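Many introductory courses stop at the sequence. We go one step further.
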Amino acid sequence: MAEPDIPVTPRIRLRGVAIFGLQHLASLAIGGVGGALESVLLATPLVQGVIYGALFGLAFSFFFSRRAATPGAGFIWGVAAALLVWLVGPAGILAMRHGGHPMGMLSDAEAKFPQLVALLICLGMPVGITVGMWGLLDSRRPQPKFSWGRAIVAGGLAGLLAGFIFGQWISSGNYSPLLAGYGESGSHTAAVVLHSAIALLIGATFGVLFQRDVRG
């Protein structure tokens, strides 16, 4: 029995619907895992963190999937969405509605800063990148050409150059923000090597995430 001949346009539309459905499920799962990790880091109820994280992932997929068409764009939109959630939360607009004193609101925002970091790292970044990765599978969107060599080599060299300029700028104060929290390196050479390695990693990561956005 011959298979029914489905026109190309409906076939592409059905594939797009399937991709978006899987995208919503993936965002929900990543959000749930990120919410669980956030709860562990902040010592908050695990179930509550999983529910909030899953809702964040699902809502982000619904409202930002068309904007987050690449991993780089998803990264930016995810971080922005996480920041918006934090601003609307108890540390921001909701605190204003309760008539808090400005200095009290400032101290409360400082106390809630770890929550902002956890939202950015555990929810905004992974959910945004996940939605952006799924956006690459949508054949209806033309995607600029991607090159791993260009991303790693060009991005890494740009990171090294920026790291060198940044290092020269702050060397007079004998302070390196990229190495903050790593303790004493033991020698100036080791500090320079570690500083350059981190700058190289940052540049290569930028090349991988944002190459399509820059070229597009």
